[in-house]
## 1
Amino acid sequence: MLSIDSITAGYTDENIINEVSLHVDEGEIVTIIGPNGCGKSTLMKSIFGLTRMRGGRIQFNGQDVTGLKPYELVKRGLSYVPQERNVFPALSVKENLEMGAIALAGGIEGRISLVLELFPGLADRMDQKAGTLSGGEQKMLAVGRAMIINPSMLLLDEPSAALSPKVMSQLFSEIRGINERGVTILMVEQNARRALAISDRGYIMEMGRNRLEGPAMNLLDNPKVCRLYLGRK
Ligand SMILES: Nc1ncnc2c1ncn2[C@@H]1O[C@H](COP(=O)(O)OP(=O)(O)O)[C@@H](O)[C@H]1O
Ligand SMILES: [Mg+2]
């Protein structure tokens, strides 16, 4: 569904990611892990057309989408939840959801009810300003806003960051639920063990490059991977 072939990209003249390749098959959950600052977010932004690409190719659903703008990718069914600043704090929950659909034609009431099915907790908060929601609720709103376009694939950058263990578990099970509804997922996670546990495959990045990849179970079972990248159980 998504195929990234040797992309090199950055923000200025400096390359932050170098010749990174990965692929995500339809229906999969794939997780990217790696140390802080190794370029995971830069890779996600590059897929979504938000960096300067200096080489490589990106294909989505069999089409070359290299260099396309975010709104063009949204029209093709790709949605993205950034790591930071992913809700508009001064807008209400409802307005945030409406903003998610801004690139699309047609009514959005049906789309909003679909999001509320996924995140029932948002239903009685529709008129509340997003900035006054809890961290977990804001994250659900950010994912909900990305879901409003009815995407075939979702890019999630550290969805569980800064959440309490309980809310984190809830969010991971919601991510699984979204995947079970047919949405393919590529995510970046610091909570690598938890993320790999719900993933089909994983990639490890280091210093802007591919380091290792494999079925999530194999990565979780690999003592070297555990020691270097997953921390204590
Ligand atoms: N908007 C930006 N402009 C310039 N450099 C950036 C920007 N965002 C990130 N970087 C740099 O890119 C490198 C990789 O960052 P990032 O992709 O955010 O890593 P990760 O998500 O793996 O922690 C870091 O050295 C960071 O300072
Ligand atoms: Mg990051």
## 2
Amino acid sequence: MSEASRNALGHALFDYMIGRADDALGVEDANVAAFQRFELVPRLFGGEPPDLRASLAGRPLAAPLVIGAFAGDRVFHPEGLLPVARSTQRMGLAMVVSEETVTPLDEITAANPETWLQLRAAGSVDRVTRIIKGAANAGAVGIVLTLMAPSHPRPGQRPGGFDIGAELRRRGWQTIGTMLDGSNAIGVAPLPALPIWGAEDLRDAVQAAYDARLPLIVKGVLHPGDAMPVMQAGAAGLAVSNIGLRQSDRWAPALDQLPRVRAAVPQAQILIDGGIRHPADILIARLLGADLAVTTRPVISALTGGGEAAVDAFLRRMIDGLYALTLWMGDGEVQAR
Ligand SMILES: Cc1cc2nc3c(=O)[nH]c(=O)nc-3n(C[C@H](O)[C@H](O)[C@H](O)COP(=O)(O)O)c2cc1C
């Protein structure tokens, strides 16, 4: 993460972005480290000009890259997510928007129509249903439902020690979730950790999305045994993710789980989320079973350190780098270091 970003944000907010959990074993991001355990073996002959085009739940993308969700956008930049929306739209990429975003959803979808809304699978299904309907009206094209540890059982324990909810309340800001759930409360919705949602609740949420004509992707799968039940509940795909190790540092890196999750659901659309920093990471993830790669912190870092131009530069570097690597690779392989 860039020095420019740390200088722009100050230590408290920068630490929130990095978000080390209390049980962290070191300063290294284990998701990033997992990618460093693999290397690429290119072939010499027959590389064709690559076609990077991909799709997310049937909607076309210029490349297999999606921008992930982060809470509290306007704390990070005065224009919130709008520079990211404009940049991703120019690049032909989709973005996922947290329900804890301050910028109204219709302003974001106006800037990039390929916008998905991310919701926490906590509290009542009715609340999620109301937000899904609101998201469809505001122009979102899909829902990402975070099933893994969507709320901390001990309120007050926050990634990096920073309370984003309190910060938004202090500024008097509403978020998309509370705008769309009808409560119009200031800040983020205080959702209970218990009861944890069951398969029945997931099916109801999928049905609500289906009624609103939106595909729903489940975020937070790590155990291969969860992949099939998620797909059987009607999800359009799943994201292998430990939510950036923000709640606990001891969860398995997303990349380490990817091959077994892929083996459990060979036909499913799989996104990998966590640790994508370089074009080579996208290629490694694809060769290990992902259809699409999601990246978040590098975008926050670019946005805060250098604004829209820096987001453009980062995304361009990812796409151009992926093109070059794919061309050089031919039908090469990935192997453990
Ligand atoms: C500041 C920050 C806020 C986040 N807020 C959310 C959120 O509201 N909902 C969510 O599902 N994930 C959230 N995440 C997790 C990211 O979407 C992503 O899963 C994680 O950062 C791992 O990807 P990365 O290594 O590319 O950053 C947040 C991450 C960061 C850094």
## 3
Amino acid sequence: MTAGARAPAAPVTLYQLSDDPYPALARLRASAPVCWFEEIGMWMVTRREDVVAVLRDPERFTTEHPRSPIGDIFGRQMLSLDGDPQKRVKAACILPFSKREVAERWRSVVEAKVDRLLLALEWRGAADLRRTVSGPLSVASVGAVLGIPEEFHPTVLEWYERFSRALANFTADPEARIQGQVAASEFRLAMRPLLERAARDPSGGLFATLVHAADRLSDEEILSNALIILFGGIETTDATIANTVWALLTHPDALAWARSTEGGWAAVVEESLRWEPAVQSCTRYAKAGVTLAGVEIAAGDPLQCMIGAANRDPAHFDDPDRFDVRRVNAGDHLSFGIGRHLCLGAHLAREEAIATLPKLFERLDGLRLDPERPTRPAGYEFRKPPELPVRWKPRR
Ligand code: HEM
């Protein structure tokens, strides 16, 4: 960082941003919208217009960088590439994630999984909803689209843990990095037989689509992109469902409105994505020296585009800290990113949340947060309640 001497330093700590980021982000947005965050060695960008400008400008701000931890762990895949190579691999993967395919092919799979999870739960009267509903649903949904059999799901979660630690490795712990790389190698090894099977059976999931595509990706490309899809689709969706349930249980008026209004659940999901985004930042690297909001950024410097700050920018959203399910422009949130790297799984993630919420509140009668195990969303990079303990009237 060569421009640091001229740059305002962020008067915030990682702890504040993990615990309750929004007051600190509001201060930064108002006083130093582009500032250097020494604790993690990155620029923070907090105004919505600047975040959009960076994410929509791959000529000046790229994801392709030797320091990118995502590239380091998952190899060359769509999120670590830019330009034509990124377009090529994303285009190859996009079909099963389209709005139409999600509605026609995956909706019934997702709904059936929600039904099975609730059937196993409704008699109990108390549970952690992350471990029993949102977590297993997100693994099953991504697994179905990729064509990974259910028997692999516990191992997928184990790999996932190691990826998360390696990617949130702000202290550059070498052990966490190595564990992430080992987990990625195990994934590649375990998935090879599935690729071979997909070559014989074109009717399977995304593996089969990719193996039989006209512009066939290499096995290495398929596995690297499967890794980012798997990583992108699990904790994010699990967290979004958990954050939304938490928001509804702490805002009973919003819950009553969702239950009585046509299209209410979809509106709730959009507002929850805006208000408490599961992914709090998108990282980019300056390709050359550049000035952003009057601040000089040096070539190669990393920038964190703070989605949670952009989503609560008062220049775009009225009374932004309020969870307002009737908000007309809630869908302008940046929680799935924007520009070339716009989330591949956004339709699938919405489908999972919208399939879960009405069934959950209908079948778990009197659903409420467990007063003996209070919880709330937390985390810097990924935000969610660490667990979501709830109670309800057990079904007899
Ligand atoms: C509510 C849940 C989700 C959230 C909040 C979320 C968030 C995001 C964000 C913010 C990005 C942009 C990253 C950037 O520009 O740096 C992204 C990209 C991506 N997401 Fe998601 N995601 C979710 C669900 C999913 C699901 C279900 C999948 C797949 C099954 C998925 C796969 C991906 C992939 C592959 C990319 C990279 C796209 C590219 O580089 O072109 N995500 N996601």
